[in-house]
Structures are given as C-alpha cells and as structure tokens.
Amino acid sequence: MTIVLAADPTVADFGKDPLWITIIKAVMLFVFLMLGVLFGVWFERKLISRMQNRYGPNRAGKFGLLQSVADGLKMGLKEDIFPRTVDKVLYLLAPVIMVVPAFLAFSIVPFAPMVNLFGVQTPLQLVDLPVAVLFMLAMGAVSVYGVVLAGWSSRSPYALLGGLRSAAQVVSYEIAMGLSFVAVFIFAGTLSTSEIVAAQAQTWFVVMLAPSFVVYVFCMFGEAARIPFDLPEGEGELVGGFQTEYSSSLKFALIMMGEYLHTFTASAIAVTLFLGGWRAPIPISWWEGANTGYWPVLWFFIKFVLTFCFVVWVRASLPRVRYDQLMSLGWKVLIPFNLAWILLVAAVRNVMIYEENRMISIALGVVVIIGALAIWLRFDTVNQRRKETRKEQVAAEFEELSNEPAAGGFPVPPLDLPHYHGVQHKEIPSGTN
C-alpha cells in the first residue's frame, strides 16, 4: 500500500469499488470493532480503576490485557440456561437484533479520505448515502427492539420493565438527538457523513455549533444507556433490567457487545459531525500532508479514543439519575432548547447566504431569543411555585403523621413510661453520680 495525496470524497465516489475491495473494507471494519470491544472493556476497567486508586485487571496477561479474552472464553464455556417460561425464538433473537444494527450503523463512518488500497483509489469508508445520518438514527432505533424483545420474551416483570424503560428512553432522546443534528445539516448543506467532514475543512462544527454538541453529548448517553442514564439496567429497582433472565453465556456476551458497539458508534458520530472527522487538529493541520494518505486514520483514532475516555470518565464520576429526572430532561429541556436553537441557527445562516434578507433574519433571531427567554422564565417561575407547594404539602403531611402514630407516623414514647424496651426505669436520688 502506498500513500498518495487525498481528496475529499463525495457520495458520487461510492459504489464504484470492485467487490473484493468492498469485502476487504467490510472485514477491516468488523475486525476493528471486534478488537475495539475486547480492548474497550479492558481499557474502561483499567481507567476507572486508576480513577478510583486501584489496579484493575492485572492477572490475565501482561497488564491484564487478556482479561477480556478470558471473560469471553468463560462466557462461551458456561452452561446455557433457558428459563422454562421464556419465548425461546425471541429470547434467542433479541441479542442478535441488538448487535447487528450497531455494526451497520458504523458502516457510514469515514476513517480517511481517498486512499490507495491495494492499488485501487477508494474512500476509507464502507458506504455513504445522501441520508447517511438518518440511516444511523434508524439503526439506533431498530436496536431498541432487541432490548424490548429481550425483556418481553423473558416473561419476567423486572425484565419487562427494563425493556419498556429502554423504549421510552430511546424515543425521548432519539428526538432530541435528531434535532441536535439539524443545525449541522443547515451549515453543511448535506446529510452525507463524508461531505459533512468536508464542510469542516476550515472550522469544526463543535466551535460554531457548541450548543448542538452539548445536546448531542446528553443524548449520546441516553441513546447508549450509559451512566448516568443507564436506567434500563437499574440494579436497585430492576435486579438487572432487561437482561435479568440471561445467564452469563454467549447471549449475555452479545448483549454486552451490542452496548459497547452503540457506545463506539455514538463516539464516532460525535467525531464525524462535530470534531472534524478524520481532519487533523491545529497546529498539526498546518502541515501540508496532515490530511493526506493514511495519516487521517491516526487523527480519527485519537479523537475516537478521547471521546470514549470522556464516556468512561462520566461513568466513574456521576451517579445514576432518577427515571423522572431522565424523562424530564429529554422532553422539557433538550427538545424545547433544540427547537429554539434551530430557529436561531437558520436565521444566522440565512443572513450569511442572502444579504438582502438580513433585516428579516435579524428580526427573526431577536424574536426567537425573546420568546425563548420568556418561555424559560415562565417555566422557571412555575417550577419554583410547584416546588414550594410540594414542600408545604410534605411538611403538612409529616406534621399530621407525626401527631397521629396510628396513621403511620413516627411515635414518641411517653416520658413517664415505667417500662421501655424491657428495662425498668428507677428513680435516681438527687446528688448521686
């Protein structure tokens, strides 16, 4: 393989590769994801352990590098237990439905521009579409069927509750995630991932569209069900969530693989849409050959690993939120904020493109800002009143229950009770120590 000067690929550059090149790229992607899961599990455990001042896995292989392999072998050799009441077909199919869409979603991620692969000029990306980002969102939505079917087919109340939680959570945060991409589409003028990377040649979208990136980060945790938003697996309320009835066998391994692959996909999409994709950061980008040949693979991989480190860091730092807080954030904060932000971005973009509509766009932007502030102040006032009313209700109920022990309050024994807890109280003469 030789390094050649690269050009930004477009959708028209795809679909022209020989079949054997497509197969090679698919195999390379599969190997990358499989090795990524093995090393990702090890890396997450080592990083969290260092943050908590402990060693982590250090027995299987040098630095514990073979710990993931040992875990995989253990799960593959353990007895595969089927509960008697499960729907066996859906019980087996659910983990597969969770894994396959994750592999497909990663196929639209660009790793590098046009390169020479075994003598063939080809984009280092498996496939691209005019609606590639929508394809990624669709695959994320399909994978939730695996979670729901895993809970439903288990015929367990805790597993079913975990599946229903996951469905509600993904619906809520899928909407907010899709809206966070709209500002990117407005500035890039396309939904193709390769062309979105090309649109960030001068400035990364994380700089111009920082609010969209922040919203996407929240949605990334909600979509991948990672802490602090891993409510489908809440051990305190649901034992183990939708996977309660799956023993530590290959089916459980597939479920864990699917979760890691969705985390990888979310990290790769963050890099592609907001962090410049495979483009080199400043000051490396000042080097003329930084974005040519196979160097972009290195820049993409560094950004990808740093994003995954951020996900692990959040897991080690924040506790799990309550379910009502999770849903309230998605519906009451992220979605309304996204709608107001999209209107503002559209107005600014209109000013940049059509100067004759500048006054109209500025007026629209001012209206949007004033409207958003008014809604926020109204919401904050109503929320404060609701909190004060709730505090008064709780105080009144507590006082009422405290005065009525029979109603379930907290009784206080009379001070003149002669026998308490089986001990007879004796009067102590004054002046006695």
Automatic annotation (TrEMBL):
Localization per record: Cell membrane; Membrane
Recorded catalytic activity of this chain's protein: a quinone + NADH + 5 H(+)(in) = a quinol + NAD(+) + 4 H(+)(out)
Single Gene Ontology MF annotation: NADH dehydrogenase activity
Enzyme class: translocase
GO CC list: plasma membrane
Residue spans crossing the bilayer: 20-43, 89-109, 129-150, 171-191, 203-221, 260-281, 293-314, 326-347, 359-377
Function: NDH-1 shuttles electrons from NADH, via FMN and iron-sulfur (Fe-S) centers, to quinones in the respiratory chain. The immediate electron acceptor for the enzyme in this species is believed to be ubiquinone. Couples the redox reaction to proton translocation (for every two electrons transferred, four hydrogen ions are translocated across the cytoplasmic membrane), and thus conserves the redox energy in a proton gradient. This subunit may bind ubiquinone.
Family: Belongs to the complex I subunit 1 family.
Protein name: NADH-quinone oxidoreductase subunit H
Species for this entry: Nonomuraea cypriaca
Gene, per the UniProt record: nuoH
